[in-house]
Amino acid sequence: MSKEETKKKITKDGLKSARQIFSYIKPYSGYFFGALTLLVIGSVLMMMIMGIPGEMVNAATGAETRFPLNLNQWGVLMMLILALRALLSFVQTILFANVSEKGMADIRRDLYGRLITQSMDYFEGFRVGELTSRITADVEQLQSVFSITLAEFIRQVLILLFGIVILAFLMPKLFLIMLLVIPVVVVLAMTFGRYIKKLSKERQDQLAKTNVIVEETLQNFSIVKAFSNEPFEVNRYSDSIAKMVGISLNFAKVRGLFFAFIIFLLFGSILFILWRGAFMVQNGNMEAGSLLSFVIYTVMIGGAIASLGNLYTTIAGALGATERVQKILERPQELSSEGTEEVERIAGSVRFSDVHFSYPSRVDVPVLKGVNIDIGFGDKVALVGQSGSGKSTIVRLLMRFYKLNKGEIKVGDTPIEALDLRSLRRSIGLVPQEVILFGGSIRENLLYGKPDASDDEIIAAAEKSHCWEFINSFPEGLDTLVGERGIKLSGGQKQRIAIARTILKDPSILLLDEATSSLDAESEKLVQEAMDELMKGRTSIIIAHRLATIRNVDRIYVIENGEIAEEGSHMELTKKEDGIYKNLAKLQFNLSE
Ligand SMILES: Nc1ncnc2c1ncn2[C@@H]1O[C@H](COP(=O)(O)OP(=O)(O)OP(=O)(O)O)[C@@H](O)[C@H]1O
Ligand SMILES: [Mg+2]
Predict the structure, then answer these.
(1) Are residues 419 and 563 in the same domain?
(2) What is the DSSP letter of 419?
(3) Is residue 335 part of a domain?
(4) What phi and psi values does residue 551 have, to the nearest 5 degrees?
(5) What's the Cα-to-Cα distance from 563 to each of 312, 355, 402, 425, rounded to whole Å?
(6) pLDDT of the chain along its 593 residues, tens only?
(7) I want to staple 375 with a disulfide (CB 3.0 to 4.6 A). Which of 340, 350, 510, 533 is the partner?
């Protein structure tokens, strides 16, 4: 019972979102209504053409007709109307394409704009493949509706209506027999269609899941190899495919049943009418040409009904896509959420007061439990602590990737919630733990820090970060492609690129999440020098795993279990009896000495 209710509701929501999607067509309504007009005229012309064979038979048999034309005149008239109809169809196709292509491009643009401006916790709730298919598969479905299906739907409805009017006028007695059949077919089509929509959605969802496996494993190809998990992935994929085949076959069965029913009713009724009509011709109650016309129109009406069922399912399927697309379009953007205070360059002091936090995806696991950190402008502090203790989380919160549960973070004198999000993030430079470069040239990757940087600026930043040495050694220099189809950079090289990018951004607050992967002594020295260069004159927070890199910072915070367990300078902390830092330092420096 409750299931029935939700099903109804989905249909209603689908129609509601369809209305909103139609607002994307509005700017192109000139094309749209132009195309519709041509569609109507074209359909009328087609109905006229289909009446001509019957009239020709009547003219040939010398029967009495309403139109006193001879066979030649009928032939010429038919060809003329046909040519006009062909021309209209050409223009109409182009007009509809204009609406669908431009309207869907607008939807895609908005959709992407919404996706990319969502908050982290929204993003983390999905697999990337799922979000991708909203913008590819779902919009594609809408596109085909607006370019083909909708026009075809309207055309068939017109044929149905005109056909019925003509038949009712031409042969009311036979028409009454038809009238008994049509409503049955329509009702059946509607019920079936609803069920088919559900199956189509199920199939679409399963397809998306299946594609996610392909996407993720191809993206992480080397990891699959490293774990020798090819057989595992193949199994996972074939299971998913098998499920999809199951759903698809079920879908096909229902669709097949649908067509079988329609075909039986359709041809059954046509043959029945022919049979009755033959009697009428025999009795002299009807001309042979009129019976031919009747049959032609009946076939057209039957065809219209059959294809309407099919088109209905396509449109119903597209409604599902519309709903999913609309859900994303409706979501508020992260930037518009709150905070309006715009600052050109925020003063770089940072204060965490009693910050409590758990990730939205795991609200019951507290990650930070009352963190207090106080960093003066230009200070350098380090965060150390075990893996998973919450160091990267502290950095993410400062960038306002997530909302706090309790407490406050201030930069300068302003709570970060009050700041315009763009101002805040523009003032913070993050060199993440894992550097991922975009596919493209090295120059493009560097420009990500400052899109309007000149080549001189780029080179200066590359020199400061010790990137220039290796960039210059590539034959194509800054235009060397990196990423999927380019060359592979080493971990240390990528880090230095990330540092150069951040130098170009010129933030007042710097967040360095040190990579756990250890570099060789030479690269480490280069990266360290690059970092020192970057930190000059900026408030810096360094997350360090190798204590050797942070001996000179102003203050060290030891994070344990989501709390600040110890704080002080390297000297102070190493003096602390049985301190966490002291033990850590003993371990690391003994090992390295
Ligand atoms: N996006 C996320 N969603 C849910 N939980 C997360 C998320 N990111 C991290 N966590 C959890 O929060 C805790 C702290 O993670 P965090 O990344 O801050 O650790 P870390 O101190 O930086 O560790 P490491 O030294 O290994 O980088 C961990 O228990 C982790 O499982
Ligand atoms: Mg981390």
Answers:
(1) yes
(2) B
(3) no
(4) -60, -25
(5) 59, 9, 18, 25
(6) 333 333 333 367 777 888 888 888 899 999 999 999 999 999 999 999 999 998 899 888 887 777 888 889 999 999 999 999 999 999 999 999 999 999 999 999 999 999 998 888 888 888 877 888 888 888 988 888 888 888 899 999 999 999 989 888 877 877 876 777 667 766 776 777 778 878 888 898 899 899 989 988 998 888 888 888 999 999 999 999 999 999 999 989 988 888 887 778 767 777 877 888 888 889 988 888 888 888 888 888 878 877 887 788 788 888 888 888 888 888 887 765 566 777 777 778 999 999 999 998 888 999 999 999 999 998 999 999 988 999 999 999 999 999 999 999 999 888 998 888 888 888 999 988 788 888 889 999 999 989 999 999 999 999 988 889 899 999 999 999 987 767 788 888 888 899 899 999 999 999 988 765 556 677 777 778 888 888 888 999 999 887 877 878 899 999 998 999 999 988 888 888 888 888 888 887 764 44
(7) 350
Alpha-carbon distance of 337 to 340, in angstroms, equals 9
Domain that holds residue 568: 343-427+540-593
| CB contact at 8 A, 107 and 325 | yes
Any ligand 1 atom below 6 A from CB of 121 = no
Cβ–ligand 1 distance for 362 under 6 Å, the answer: yes
**How far, in Å, from the CA of 396 to the mean position of ligand 2?**
10
Same-domain status, 145 and 284? yes
236 with 176, same domain?
Answer: yes
Q: Report the number of distinct structural domains present in the chain.
A: 2
Q: Which of 121, 363, 391 to mutate to test the pocket of ligand 1 (most atoms within 8 A of CB)?
A: 391
Distance 389 CA to ligand 1 centre (A): 7
In 3D space, the residue among 508, 506, 499 whose CA is nearest the CA of residue 531 turns out to be 499
CATH of the domain at 362: 3.40.50.300
Domain assignment present for 451: no
